[in-house]
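Quick check before the chapter quiz. The format below is the same one you will see on the exam, so make sure you can read both the input and the output lines.
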Amino acid sequence: MAVRYRIREADPTSALDIQAITDIYNASVIAGGSSADTTPRTFEQRRAWIEAHQSPYAVFVVEAESTDEPSDRRIIAFGALSVFYARAGYDRVTDLAYYIAPEWQRKGVGTFLLGGLLDECRKRHMRKACGIIFADNAGSIALMHRFGFTQFGLMPDAATDSTGTMRDMSYWYLDL
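Here is the expected output.
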């Protein structure tokens, strides 16, 4: 079965979108290694998070669709363009975040999603995109390199994850 990916803005009124985002995020929280949240988030917390993204910032989902059966479509990843720092001088600088359902990792979804997020950054006239990533997250670090991001900092022992592991944080940016 061949699959194609499609990115679209998440609908904050869609229970399907919110539940998929909640499930994907919580799988990452529980696994550890990609979020500094130490406990899963609720449906309502994720809804509020999506609603907090006001233009030009937004949350997006990636759907996988069977080319054989177009009605067979499911959300397999999500990403966000979030406020980097809530002061006017940082307007149009965005903090990128992205999460992929475990069974869809290492299938090109991250590359597709990050490319789509960067396209959205440019459409929304962002001037810089930033990524804040656990320094041992090899997949995300590889994506940063692939898309030409520059590392601008490393903070040792900055955050713990749900496993209780203390992790270094790496900081990345891309001029748009």
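If your answer matched, good. Residues 61 and 78 are 4 Å apart (CA to CA).
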